[in-house]
Amino acid sequence: MKTTPVILAAGEGTRMRSAVPKVVHPLMGKAMIQYSLDAALEVCGTKPVVVIGHEVEEIRRIVGDRADFVVQEPQLGTGHALLQTEPVLDGKTDLILVTTADMPLLTTQTLAHLVAAQESHAGPITMLTLISGEPRGFGRVIRNPEGQVREVIEEAQAAPEQLSIRELNASVYCFAADWLWEGLRRIPLSPKGEYYLTDLVEIAASDGLSVQAVILDDPTEAIGINTRVHLSEAEALLRARINRGWMLTGVTIIDPGRTYIETGVTIGQDTEIWPDTYLQGDTTVGCGCKVGPNTTVRDTSIGDRCVVLTSVLEDAEVEDDVRIGPYSHLRKGAHLAEGVHIGNFGEVKNSYLGPGTKMGHFSYVGDATIGPGVNIGAGTITCNFDGECKSHTEIGANVFLGSDTMLVAPVKLGDGARTGAGSVVTKNVPPNTLVAGIPARAIRKLDKK
User: Fold this and answer.
1) 64 Ramachandran zone, left/alpha/beta (phi>0; psi -120 to 50)
2) Which single residue of 34, 315, 356, 375 could bond 30 by disulfide (Cβ 3.0 to 4.6 Å)?
3) Any idea what the Cα angle at residue 266 is, between residues 265 and 270, rounded to 5°?
């Protein structure tokens, strides 16, 4: 049976008190709505239809071509929102899975279970419910003495005895499409002037049709986000879910409560993540690494057996067996080859450091290509910016740069060259030549050995 997901995202989200649409607020590195999209796509295999109503252009920009869009104007409730999809879905699908963009914790397993239950169900509705003593504004599920679902009472309309009911409506449904459109047109107008999707339950039951409920194993999956307090609760639960998943795959996380790993990150086995570490964006960490504590890695590739201690890595590439930190900073375009060592307070930007090169401490390398086996003495700086443009520095293999060397780009040092401490290099240095002074000048040729 073909199942098409519909994601309701037309709410204004006023309780977020934000100029940003509620469903695009970030959550563990992704916009909130992306979680609903990912789950729906994986379960159904068909492009979702997203119902939007406020800040439509911003939501379109975030979602892109991953979904089709229907605009609800005016916004007259969830039943009215779903009815807007009839022109694009009528006669084109067997089942319609309805979720909301502000429930990012719903798993693909739960949604797949819901769809499978409706596929084997003779009635037109299968709904998701949860058992909880914290109603969080959810409607109460009313059953008859035989245990069959009869209706959903919204919390605002519930009588005192109904408020004590612990089975709650999660507002996630799977409908038989051939019944849905007629049912939506039969929804009565509420006292608030809206059409509620929950009324479909009573309509089906009153027609003698079966309404099936699938009860959530983990009630936290149904947490909806309406305020920034809810957003922080969802983020804490999602972070714990992500961290637990990595630990089960063979990653050691010393203190999961103080470790932040976004959804797009990948980590190899036997890597250790220490407290107060943030792995963000499109980041890859290899096997057998030690990362942290107090480290931020963003959009960076790290090879195997690397150590990154109390440092910041952004848009960088790190090969195997590299040691970084403490207090180092790799900026955009930094590429450290195998066996490189960057010590405390070292900074690299838009530069390649060849295999085995070492930069002990208090140095800056920017817009440079550095060969293998180079020693970069403390306080060395590539002077790459003259106030108007950036220039390149090229350093050959096995070069030794004395402490406090200034390399005024553009400049090239040949293989085996050396600089004396405090040198200011303004001209190219031939291979196997020692230079020193301000400005640096050739002192003598060196033995190639």
Assistant:
1) left
2) 34
3) 130
Instruction: Record the tokens describing residue 228, joined without a space.
Output: 């920034």
Domains and CATH numbers, the chain: 3-222 (3.90.550.10), 228-445 (2.160.10.10)
Neighbours of 113 (CB within 10 A): 17
Q: What confidence tens digit (pLDDT) does each residue in 36-60 have? A: 999 999 999 999 999 999 889 999 9
Q: Which amino acid is at 330?
A: L
Are 400 and 414 in contact, with CB atoms under 8 Å apart? no
- Catalytic residue annotation: 361
Q: Per-residue pLDDT averaged across 4-17, rounded?
A: 93
Residues 6+ apart with CB under 8 A from 87: none
The pLDDT of residue 136 is 85
pLDDT at 134: 86
| Residues in a beta bridge with 273 | 253, 291
Strands 406-408 and 381-383, sheet pairing: parallel
Q: Is the pLDDT of residue 157 over 90?
A: no
Share the mean pLDDT of the chain.
95
DSSP codes joined into one string, 51-65:
EE-SSHHHHHHHHGG
Name the CA radius of gyration of the chain, rounded. 30
Token pair 């690397």 in the structure block, residue: 306
Q: 55 vs 258, which has greater pLDDT? A: 258
Contact 298, 316 (CB under 8 A): no
Distance, CA of 437 to CA of 121 (rounded, Å): 86
- Residue 448 scores a pLDDT above 80: no
Task: Note whether 224 and 102 are within 8 A (CB).
Answer: yes
Six token digits for residue 318: 């790190």
Token pair of 165 as six digits: 């009911």
Find the distance separating the first CA and the last CA of the chain, reported in whole Å.
Answer: 74
Has residue 257 got a pLDDT over 90? Answer: yes
**Sequence-ordered list of residues with C-beta below 8 angstroms from that of 213, at least 6 positions apart, any chain:** 126, 127, 128, 129, 141, 149, 167
Within 163-319, strands assigned E span 167-176, 211-215, 252-253, 259-261, 266-267, 272-273, 277-280, 284-285, 290-291, 295-298, 301-302, 307-308, 312-314, 317-318
Contact 188, 132 (CB under 8 A): no
Task: Report the relative pairing of strands 295-298 and 400-401 from DSSP bridges.
Answer: unpaired
CA dihedral 180, 184, 186, 190 (to 10 degrees): 150
What's the pLDDT at 191? 87
